[in-house]
Structure formats: C-alpha cells, structure tokens
Amino acid sequence: WILRKNIDRGNLGGIMHKRRVVVTGMGIVSCFGNDVDYFYEQLLAGKSGVKPLDKFPCQEYPTRIAAAIDNFDPGEYLQKKQARRIDPFIAYTMVAGKKALENSGFNLEKLEVLDLQKCGIIIGSGMGGMITFYDGIQTVLEKGFKRLTPFFVPYIITNMGGALLAIDLGFKGPNFSISTACATGNYSIHAAAEQIQLGRADLMLCGGAESPMNYSGLAGFVAAKTLSTRNDDPATASRPWDRDRDGFIMGEGSGVLVLESLEHALNRGAPILAELLGSSINCDAYHMTSPREDGEQVARCIEDALQSAGKDKAEVNYINAHATSTIMGDLCEIRAIKQVFKEKAAHIKINATKSMTGHCLGAAGGIEAIATIKAINTKKLHPNPNLFNPDPEMEGLSLVAKQAEKHEINVALSSSFGFGGHNSVLVFAPYDGNN
C-alpha cells in the first residue's frame, strides 16, 4: 500500500519523481489511408470506411462487409521484398511506427541523435499473424510440412511487429507486445507510459495493429454472433448506441503514438500534441466474452484513471467511447459513465469512432487515441453518423450527432475493452506548459 501511494504521488522511496508523459507524434494505417490528417478529415466529414468485403470469396457468409484496407502501399517504409513476405499486421505496425516518428520531427536516417538504449516499442496485436497462420495451415494440409515457410512462426507471433520495427530503427530499450483482445492498443499505451515514468525509457512507440481479414477471421466472429448482417447498407451498418444496432463491423490497421518524457521532448524541441495525464487497466473477472452489465469495473477503471491523472471528474468534457455497436457492450460503458459522472455526464461530449472505421480490434485503442488527440488539436469532434434512433439509455447524455461539432477539450478519456473482461481508460489533455 505504501509503495503504491508513493508511486501515485510520483515518489518511490523518496527518490524518484513521476515524469510527465507527452505525445509528440502519431502514425496510422487505416481504411482511410496512411495519413493522420486525412484520416481525421474523413471522420469529421462523417465518411464510412465500411464496404463489401472482396479480399476473399465470402458470398455464403451472413456478414459480407468490413472496413478493410485496400491497395495498401507501404511506400519507402518497407523494402519491397520484405513487404511481400511479412504478415500484413507486421507491415501495418512498421509503417505506422515509422510515420509516427516522422510526425514527431525525426529523420529516420539520422536516429543516432537519440540514446537508442532509452528508446523502446510496445505495439501489440489481439490476434497476430492470422493471414500467415491460415495460409501456413493450408500449405501443411495440401502440400505437406516440408513446404511450410521457415517464416511461419516468426510472422504469426504478436511481438514480431515491434521486434522488426526495432531492428530497422535500432531501438534497444523496452520492447514487448501485449495481447488483451480489443483493449490491446490502450494497454500498450498504458504500459509504454509506465516505462517512461519509471525512468526505463525516454521515448516509446506504442499502440496496436491488426489484420484479421481472411476466412477464419470473419468466420470466427460470425460464429460468435457478434457481427452486423446489414450487408445491403454497409455505410450505416455500424450503429453504436442505436436501438437497431445488430453487431459490430470488422476493421483493421494500426495506430501508433510517440510518447516521450516531457523533459526529453522539450530538450529536443519536439512538437507536443497532447499530454497523457494518466491511465488505468483492470478486469471484470466475469465472463469470457460478455461485459458486466452494470458497468461496475468500467466505472472503477474510469475513476482510477482520473486519480492517476490527478484530475477531478468535473474537468472531463469529452469521451471517445469504445462503443462497438453490440447490444450489451454499448450499454455497459454508458452505465459506467453515468455511475461515475452522475448529473455531470449530461455535459460531457461523447462520440464513437467505430461508427466509421468499424472495430479495428487490437488496433482500436491506438487508432482511437489518435482520433482523441486530433480532437484536442483541431477543437472539433467527429459525428456519430449512424445514430438514427438512440437507445433509451442514452437519454440525458450529450452525444455528438450527425454533424461534427466545435469543442474545446479540457480533459478527454479514450476507452477500450476486450474479450476476457479487459478494461482500459486513457486520460489526455492539451499540453499546458505552465504546470
């Protein structure tokens, strides 16, 4: 208890001060392309990335739509031979990570200006190399084990995206992957911030990546009965908080942040996009795929995140919600918000990025952190274009409706939850150089 209190106060044994963590760069691979500004412009315009899925024959599936990435071009960020070999989730990781560093003001050819021993990577994946795994099993069954590529194991494991990125960049600091289903991106950002706060790193690349678009990925979620079947109207299929929602839409991509200690960022004159004030993770310990209906642990996660950030509930005025468009998942989070903020919940703007990007699974937290930071920077909130008939439990809340809204953010929350009961909340705010 004493140790925990000392860490919360930024004092470990009276020796170590808890370092402030800032966001200095962002990189994305998404259904809207690989440019962060363009990505957010599409969200502000209410555009949907959901369309008929044509990566493989799926005419017999009850769900035949997804927010898939078409014609992915890694550009100069990957060698062509490597790009052909690696699983897409690894390619997404490496491109988003390198673009985040460029966005942070680095020349990728001159990274020796950094102390590479103090630069690390925590980029996770909920499912890893699913396409490589499926193709490998097909090879073994049809052609025999001798025909299996020696890259099979390296390209399916979730840590390989961050590992290959580190090899390219020379980053020798903390490097591991986290896999907590759809909360993976947030968990990775939380863990990366801890590495900086504890003095183990000065700079961390963090976030999530996912590429589940194949027969088994789609079939798995169909079997779990979690997907929308609104194939005749892809753009409106993902309907968070709508009474007629019938499940989520699969998405894919990668969202990566550059986190730095404030001191490190200031010393190199970095562009400071936002401050990560705090974060929290916990577990429902309730059910394999269903959240606690009362939202009790999500509420606790929000409260713990605000405590770690040193912020009062009254200061929160924006939430980028997890809101997948599933019947119970949407309401669990809303009940938690009402429990924590009570009557103040009516004054908090809330939106759901998955209404347009689909559910990017292990990449969702990273991608939605980017949307949250862009909202802070632009002072504009993207709409919820598919909210036609709000669920009765949404009454009394300030949902961003069908048009983008101007909004100056004081303190923002970005939430992600995953199968297994994994809960996570990040707390972002505009950087205040006076504190």
- The mean pLDDT is 94
Number of strands: 16
Low-pLDDT runs of 5+ residues are 1-16
Tally of individual helices = 14
> In which range does the helix fraction lie?
25-40%
Strand order of the largest sheet: 6-7-8-3-9-16-15-10-11-13
Share of β-strand residues: 15-25%
| Global outline | globular
Short description:
This protein has helices spanning 2-8, 36-44, 80-85, 88-103, 130-143, 152-156, 160-169, 184-197, 215-223, 262-267, 296-309, 327-341, 354-357, 364-378; strands at residues 11-12, 16-17, 21-29, 51-52, 65-66, 119-124, 203-210, 253-261, 274-283, 316-320, 349-351, 380-381, 398-399, 405-406, 411-418, 422-429. It has 435 residues and is of the alpha/beta class.
Question: Could you list some keywords that capture this structure?
Answer:
435 residues; alpha/beta; ten-stranded mixed sheet; two-stranded antiparallel sheet; 18% strand; globular; disordered N terminus
Q: What do these coordinates show?
A:
33% of the residues lie in helices and 18% in strands. By secondary structure, the chain is of the alpha/beta class. The protein has a ten-stranded mixed β-sheet, sandwiched between helices.
